[in-house]
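Problem: given the chain below (368 residues), write out its structure.
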Amino acid sequence: MTRDPTVGGTDHVRTVTVAIVTPLEPELAEQIRESDDYVEVLYEPDLLPPVRYPGDHRGVPGFTRGAGAERRWRLLPDASEVFFGLPGDSAAGLAAAVRSNPGLRWAQATAAGAGEQLRAAALTPQELERVTVTTASGVHAGALAEFCMLGLLYFARGVPRLQADQRAHRWDQQPVAELSGATLLVLGLGAIGTEVARVAKAFGMRTIGVNREGRSESPDVDAVYRSDRLFDLLPQADAVVVTLPLTDETRGMLGAQALHRTKSGAVLVNMGRGAIIDEEALVQALREGKLGGALLDMFATEPLPPESPLWDLANVLITPTPRRCQCARTSAWWSSSSTTSGATFAGEAAAQPRRPTTLLLNGSSRRP
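Solution.
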């Protein structure tokens, strides 16, 4: 039961209305509906873009609705206190919804880069005070840590060479590297970065972390430094993993000078934002062998253009961003966060330690 704080001293049941404004599997929409007896879900899948693959929360680009469907669509967000997703998966959609719906209180983003969308929406301080925008920070941390180890093992064990030998029917025994004893530099120590460090420790790796504060509570990070020490740390690292968000400080952080400082033969894994790395400098470092390999699922331009030289480099493993996350994670995402929806918007304390959401306020992140 939710409690209306305007009714003093009595339990007054009211409904929290949730509009699903991004593509979502029907069974997950039903899960949201069943999360609380007093959650009303507005879900009209025919108004949402068709999905391209399981777990796609953006849908087909350029999707348009007929005139009648567009009128129905415009009414949907205005009737809700809570959004699952951002309308149109865009900053413009978020801004328009906030300004047309004074009753909106919470928008649960689904896409990577929600912080960028929030900044681009240019909401006023009053609007930011009224509407909480959250992202399911950390819900994919386990899957992404596994993805990271895939890349590290792929290059450490010489898989590209093994594949080439197999295609050539060539029996050629070559030495391979081990992860045990190698040094891993993790850029960004949020939920994903700390999970990467935890899994890396299981492989016997030495872990170094970098963040703005130069500190971390994770027992799996052997040493933590401020980001201004990056150039000193790069020569030590056998592998560098990027888990940073895109901010003014991180844009272009791994440019030509930084890549020149990396240890010869190091492996780079980017699970942060594409613009953190200078792609032209990255291509050069890979071609020259300064970097031994790169696992990339984030790029400055997405989809990665067919003419990008990254496609043809033998020491690069490319994967489209959405392929890295399992659809099942969406269920866990809402299962964890929806349990607080009624309490949050009825004025009750919502101190739930398992809630995987991070408040994005003025482009920065903090725990609610």
